[in-house]
Design a protein that fits this description.
This protein is α/β, with parallel strands linked by helices. The chain folds into 2 domains: 132 residues, Response regulator (Rossmann fold, 3-Layer(aba) Sandwich); 179 residues, Rossmann fold, CATH 3.40.50.2300. The longest helix has 25 residues. The strands form 3 sheets. It has a 6-stranded parallel β-sheet with strand order 2-1-3-4-5-11, with helices on both faces. The protein has a 6-stranded mixed β-sheet with strand order 7-6-8-9-10-12, with helices on both faces. The protein is built from 11 helices and 14 strands.
């Protein structure tokens, strides 16, 4: 074999080796990349619970400056406390008549699960509606009848009335006080008596005249009654009605008066001696919290006062003597810690009969049915003693 032939064979062998290597490389299978693991499925957020629907029935307008205004402040306290967990609504000027039952039934059929009726005259209508709607919770203010899904609540307004009386007794010059009263039920009679007892504690000479208007919110009648009392010699007026008409009348006629249920200073700043106010917020928040947590129970009655932060006297006038202000604070402290009792005997009615014996303290059952005027209150309770 010639040298040229050998070189040709070597070249051929080399080319064959390269070609084989290329063929082997082209035929190699690549391992597939591992498939990415699927991302874990995001857990769906738990559905947000539906807000608790709460409705209020008001006997007067929310702008009455007194009773209904105070209840509506309590409704607003619920909204502030619970935010989007609740939805509240109200119907104002609901009369204490068959129309109240219609309004409460509409509230029940509109998906409300907690319904507040805020005046005594709603008691029977609410009992009827509650009996037909066992899945709804009903709260009735100032009443005394309860049901399986209806309970009652009240505030010890007589405590505010007593403290106002302490001031009135000191500030009267004629020793004649006047009360514009709404409806002759124990709640109102208690307040008239407590006001008088408070006044007698600072001035034993006082007497109290009463004019009934047979309604909670009737500014013209309240004005007329206040005028009548002033004409009869009263120079300090008190009220158990819902508008500021009594205070306005006192302002116009140069007399003195008190705000009731809410701070009424602005309605008669010269006449205003103080305001006995109600704070419904603590109770409304408690009831709503129980409903939200499934702890609400029907039946029973709650009656809160100074001790629970439900009753206070505020905006005492500058010209009230310092010693009288101190006495009011002492009464307030005593009511708060239990060391002072308004209804401690002897308490005599205006016919001379002893109603609470010496050193005895009237209980809530006695107060709930109170139907007499204490000594110092003139006249008779309409339909009573």
């Amino acid at each position: 074999m010639t040298d040229l032939q050998r070189r040709s064979l070597f070249r051929l062998a080399a080319l064959t080796a390269v070609a084989s290597a290329v063929l082997v490389g082209c035929g190699k299978k690549e391992e597939p990349a591992p498939a990415p693991k699927p991302a874990p499925a995001a857990s769906a957020p738990a559905p947000k619970p539906e807000p608790l629907k709460i409705a209020f029935a008001y006997v007067g307008p929310v702008g009455d400056g007194g009773w209904t205004f105070a209840h509506d402040n309590g409704r607003k306290a619920i909204e502030k406390e619970f935010g989007d967990k609740v939805v509240t609504s109200f119907v104002e000027n609901v009369p204490e008549s068959a129309d109240a039952e219609r309004v409460v039934r509409e509230m029940a059929s509109s998906g409300n699960k907690l319904i507040f009726g805020t005046t005594f005259g709603y008691m029977e209508p609410m009992l009827k509606v509650a009996a037909d709607n066992k899945g709804i919770k009903f709260e009735h203010a100032t009443g005394y009848k309860q049901g399986e899904n209806m309970r009652t609540y009240d505030s010890r307004t007589y405590e505010g009335a007593y403290m106002a009386g302490v001031i009135a007794g000191k500030m009267t010059k004629s020793n004649t006080l006047g009360v514009v009263a709404s409806i002759p039920i124990p709640e109102v009679v208690r307040n008239i008596n407590a006001f008088t007892l408070g006044a007698q504690s600072s001035n034993p000479k006082v007497k109290t005249k009463v004019v009934w208007v047979n309604g909670w919110f009737d500014p013209p009648k309240e004005t007329e009654a206040a005028t009548s009392l002033i004409n009869g010699g009263a120079d300090v007026l008190f009220q158990n009605t819902d508008s500021p008409a009594v205070l306005k009348t006192a302002e116009a006629k140069g007399k003195r008066a008190f705000g009731w249920d809410s701070d009424m200073t602005a309605y008669g700043p010269k006449a205003h001696l103080a305001s006995a106010v109600i704070n419904w917020g603590p109770y409304y928040i408690k009831a709503t919290k129980e409903a939200l947590e499934g702890k609400w129970t029907g039946g029973g009655n709650t009656w809160w006062g100074v001790k629970e932060g439900a009753i206070n006297i505020v905006s005492i006038a500058e010209d009230v003597p310092a010693d009288t202000k101190v006495k009011v604070e002492e009464v307030k402290k005593g009511l708060s810690d239990g060391s002072f009792a308004i209804w401690k005997g002897p308490i005599t009615d205006n016919t001379g009969k002893v109603q609470v014996e010496k050193d005895a303290v009237a209980d809530d059952k006695f107060l709930s049915g109170l139907n007499f005027y204490v000594k110092g209150v003139e006249g008779k309770i309409p339909g009573g003693k």
